[in-house]
Structure formats: C-alpha cells, structure tokens
C-alpha cells in the first residue's frame, strides 16, 4: 500500500495527501474483508456447514 511506503521510508507528502492515501488503504481493507466474508460463507455452504 502506498501509504505504508510513504510512512516507512519517510517520504515527504502533504498532510491531505497522506490522509487520502490512508483513507484509500482503509477502504481497501474494508472491501477485502467483505469479499473474504462472502468467499468463506460460500465455502461453508458448499461443504455443508451452516452460516
């Protein structure tokens, strides 16, 4: 994630720019979590577990 690169390597960026990168990274995690929940639920149904 771009925000981690900026924070780890100490690259310079405007405060608003860092906030936008942070918000994008957070949204990416939220979206990935939702997709993973759907995938896990489908697997549970395929293999006979109730969700």
TrEMBL record:
It comes from the Bacteria. This is Uncharacterized protein. It comes from Agarivorans albus MKT 106.
């Amino acid at each position: 994630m771009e925000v981690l690169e900026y924070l780890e390597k100490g690259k310079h960026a405007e405060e608003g720019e860092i906030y936008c990168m942070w918000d994008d990274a957070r949204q990416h995690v939220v979206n990935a979590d939702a997709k993973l929940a759907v995938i896990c639920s489908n697997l549970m149904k395929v293999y006979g577990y109730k969700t």
